[in-house]
TrEMBL record:
Pfam families: AAA_28. It comes from Flagellimonas olearia. This is AAA family ATPase. Residues 11-177 form the NadR/Ttd14 AAA domain. SUPFAM superfamilies: P-loop containing nucleoside triphosphate hydrolases.
């Protein structure tokens, strides 16, 4: 990995399911910023298309392992090609896979913990809180509202456990959310 000092321009946008992360990232991309799509959603779609077992409603452990592995690979590829200064926004990070493991009672192997401690995103992680008015389920998102809230709380615990500072993105129209994120980065 490239040697980076204090400022790592890799920003995670996370939270429970259905809180507007992807909409926020799409608008960041529309404004010319680099984004990395959510690995979990891509993995679920790929597994559904191929009748695979690595799904949260089939083989949860395999799903978590592949989600973590794909997220780490994505991080490494971006890290290798990044100029090191322009912000890059990730729709979830590899810590989200560890959060999922914790939610499901799946043991986290030491190698994954070590990877999460060594490979670092920017210290500031943007988190979106549950927002019932916009919450919807679909073919890849099957969690009910209570699971979404529980996931959000577990996400806070996971990221704080790895010494990240969480920045709550306000519930607002997507343009205002993007302005909030970009203004925060400029100030910090």
């Amino acid at each position: 990995m490239k040697n980076r000092k204090e400022h790592i321009p890799f920003y995670v946008i996370t939270g429970g399911p259905g809180v507007g992360k992807t909409t926020l990232l799409n608008e960041l991309q529309n404004r010319g910023h680099a984004t990395v799509p959510e690995i979990a959603r891509e993995l679920i779609k790929e597994q559904q298309d191929n009748n695979g077992d690595a799904l949260p409603w089939k083989d949860k452990k395999l799903y978590m392992e592949l989600m973590f592995q794909h997220s780490v690979e994505s991080f490494k590829q971006i890290n290798h090609s990044s100029n090191g200064t322009d912000p890059i926004f990730f729709d979830r990070g590899f810590l989200d896979a560890l959060c999922y493991a914790s939610l499901e009672g799946i043991p986290i192997v030491q190698e994954m913990r070590t990877t999460a401690e060594i490979m670092r995103y920017n210290t500031h992680v943007f988190i979106l809180s549950p927002w019932q008015e916009i919450y919807q389920t679909d073919e890849q998102r099957k969690q009910d509202w209570n699971e979404a809230v529980f996931t959000y709380n577990k996400m806070i615990q996971t990221y704080r456990g790895y010494q990240y500072d969480l920045v709550e993105v306000p519930k607002a129209p997507v343009g205002e959310r993007v302005d909030f994120v970009l203004d925060f980065i400029k100030k910090h």
